[in-house]
Each structure stands twice: as structure tokens, then as C-alpha cells.
């Protein structure tokens, strides 16, 4: 199984938290500096991080869909 690359980590982190990664560090229960090392490729990204990012992305997608549906419903009224 291939390891998560810093490039893919950065893409997922930016999609989840475009204004900063402090919240991502909290959600992953790691220090902010750890995220910076993963993003820079100076520290290997643990295997479980990809699974955790997928869970966060799925949760966020669900939140976006719910908001979208509420907006669409309001436009129809």
C-alpha cells in the first residue's frame, strides 16, 4: 500500500481548512507543527491520517449537501 504524499496531504488539508490548519490539527489530535512537517515532507505521514482525512471530507461533504438542499428549498418557496 502506498503512503500518502505531502502533495495529497496538502490538497486535502486545503480543501478542508482553506483559512488555516489549526482546526485540522485539533481534529486530527496532533500539534500544528506536525502538520507542517507532513506538508513539507520532512516527516512521514502515518498510515491512519489518510483514513482520518477521508472521514473529515465525507463529513464536510454531508454538511455542504445539507446546506445546499436548504438553500434550494428556500429558493423554491
Structural class: mainly alpha
State mean pLDDT (0 to 100 scale).
91
Helix run count: 4
Major sheet attributes: none
N-to-C SSE series?
Answer: HHHH
Overall radius of gyration = 15 Å
Helical content stands at: over 70%
Low-confidence stretches: none
Shape: elongated
Query: What fraction of residues sit in β-strands?
Result: under 5%
How far apart are the termini? Answer: 50 Å
Number of strands: 0
Structural summary, described in words:
The protein has 77 residues and is mainly alpha-helical. It has four helices and no strands. It has helices at 6-16, 22-28, 32-40, 47-76. Helix 1 runs parallel beside helix 4. The N and C termini lie far apart (50 Å). The model has no long low-confidence stretch (mean pLDDT 91).
Could you give the topology of this structure?
Blueprint: H1 6-16, H2 22-28, H3 32-40, H4 47-76
Amino acid at each position: 500500500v502506498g503512503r500518502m504524499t505531502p502533495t495529497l496531504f496538502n490538497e486535502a488539508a486545503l480543501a478542508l481548512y482553506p483559512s488555516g490548519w489549526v482546526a485540522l490539527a485539533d481534529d486530527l489530535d496532533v500539534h500544528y507543527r506536525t502538520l507542517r512537517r507532513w506538508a513539507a515532507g520532512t516527516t512521514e505521514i502515518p498510515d491512519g491520517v489518510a483514513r482520518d482525512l477521508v472521514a473529515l471530507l465525507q463529513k464536510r461533504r454531508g454538511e455542504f449537501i445539507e446546506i445546499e438542499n436548504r438553500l434550494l428549498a428556500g429558493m423554491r418557496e
